[in-house]
Amino acid sequence: MQQGKNADDFFKVQLVGFRKQIRLDGGSCIIEVDKTIAEVEYTDLIIVPAIWGDVMRGTQLNRHYFSWLINQYKNGAEIASYCVGAFIVAATGLLNGKRCATHWAYTNELLAYYPEIKLVPEKIITEQNGIYSSGGGTSYWNLLLYLLEKFTSRKVVIAATKYFLLDLARNSQSEFVMFKGQKEHGDKLVEKVQLYIENNYQEKINIERLATDFSVVRRTLERRFSKATKNTIAEYIQRTKIEVAKKEIEKDRKTINEIMYELDYADKKAFKDLFLKITGLTPIEYKRKYVRN
């Protein structure tokens, strides 16, 4: 891509590591870095990559970078994380009180370990006080385009999107989320209630009756449920129903109205608004996008 300037005129990109040579998969993959963190006195921008596998184990294996990231940020550097690289930035404490996005499949885990952050799971990109984060998978491209525009110009970004066939308009990962509910919280009562909701989503579930059936005071149940799942019971019921609706729409065996009625929704507008709120698309838009004609 030619813009009248070489890429080096805009950026000097370097791969930085704790050691000169990073060995992965038992040494089957070796990465040679340009500089070690000890050799970097100052930089404008640091991009923290994603972690593969067990994210908390990966975070601890990268603990050598924590103090370096903190010091660089204090010295004026900006920090961007890709996907679950947010776990590393969160571990430094730099995300406390700040908005953050990550891969939708890891939102519950991130919030469980770092409750001080302001998680916005639907976002593709967040920016606050010189710290950026992005959602999962290909949202890395959206983050790069966002940074490219900030440090160069809109003209350069548009040229890049055309050259690499990238979608500049995408700003939410809500439609990609597959809701499974957080079940690794250890509260057996809450887990039983979750399973009941998931197995009886077609019914009109009354929270008072739910508390009675599980022999617990409603206020206690609601408090424990919210603490464990990061959703109220009403929100959990709604998200469960919409997840079912998405799967039924993808099958393309029933009309949207049939799916709505089977999920105990009688108000078309209410169902449409709820679907839009959770997925970022209306039911018709979702069908157009995911059902092959």
From TrEMBL:
Keywords: Transcription, Transcription regulation
Protein name, per record: Helix-turn-helix-domain containing protein AraC type
Gene3D superfamilies found in the cross-reference section: 3.40.50.880, Homeodomain-like (1.10.10.60)
Keyword Transcription included in the entry's annotation: yes
Molecular function as annotated in GO: DNA-binding transcription factor activity; sequence-specific DNA binding
SUPFAM superfamilies (alphabetical): Class I glutamine amidotransferase-like, Homeodomain-like
InterPro entries: Class_I_gatase-like, DJ-1/PfpI, Homeodomain-like_sf, HTH_AraC, INH-QAR
Keyword Transmembrane set for record: no
Species of origin: Pedobacter heparinus (strain ATCC 13125 / DSM 2366 / CIP 104194 / JCM 7457 / NBRC 12017 / NCIMB 9290 / NRRL B-14731 / HIM 762-3)
One Pfam family this sequence matches: HTH_18
HTH araC/xylS-type domain boundaries: 191-289
PANTHER family: ARAC-FAMILY TRANSCRIPTIONAL REGULATOR, TRANSCRIPTIONAL REGULATORY PROTEIN
